[in-house]
Amino acid sequence: MPAFPPSLARYLPALALIVLSCTWGYTWVLLKQGLVYASPFALAAQRCVGGAVALVVAVKLMGKSMRLVAPGETAVLGLVQITGFVALQTWALVEGGPGKTAVLIFTMPIWTLLLAWPLLGERVRGKQWLAAASTLGGLLLIIEPWNMHSSLFSKMLGIGAAVCWAVSTVLLKRLRRREPVDLLVLTTWQMIIGSVPLVLLAELAPGRSTDWSSHYIAIIIFLSVASVALCWWLWVWILDRVPAWEASLSVLGTPVVAILSSRLALGEAFKASEVAGILLIGGGLALLSLFGWMSSHRAVQTR
Known about the structure:
Helix content is 77%, strand content 0%. The protein is mainly alpha-helical.
């Protein structure tokens, strides 16, 4: 990203998280629409391949080298963050439908909190626990784990996708501490490596042929360029600037946007638990922002 004045630069991670949450939130609506035209695994492979192409074009346009700096770590990240996450996410949608089972993916912050402490030394401290409790409590009200009628298998698939995301988050932070890897190039190679098994899976899994209508092409372009290429790069960029647990909690704005957009698009009524969950998540994110602002304000005053 270009250089910004310090007064503006400190707000860029928050702005990036807003863009990411809004885009990924609306992605759930488009995924539901896309499944009308393609089988689930074909849709998964097509949007990741499209994302890889978009990222390669971006790297070339910016005049960057495609040299792979940390091939082993990048391959593991691609297989865990792209192949593992997307495959398990798609499988969860197939087994349990696009409802609460899929939202189990957003238990990711819980697993990240558990992993970031021993592996990264990143701890939630003091008043930060209030923001964490509010945000995770809101997530529980939205998921309603006590009221899920889908199979245990589909739930485990959703949790597996969440764990893949959390593990890749921690691995990415560890890699960036050791290697000065270009973030855009790293994201591009992750997408290329992770897309290969998804293409093979789409070929092997039974499913109907893709209906390449103009509507579906528009959906794939948005999913590839915005949801996959842009958002995964933004996620890597954000992780490079804030603690893993904080970024993971902040991305919980995504299920809020997903619920709002799906309810508005489909004309469905809001449930009381969803409204309460949205308010708790919003309150937790507001507290995270407030604590971050207070911390930066104190840092400026002590200089």
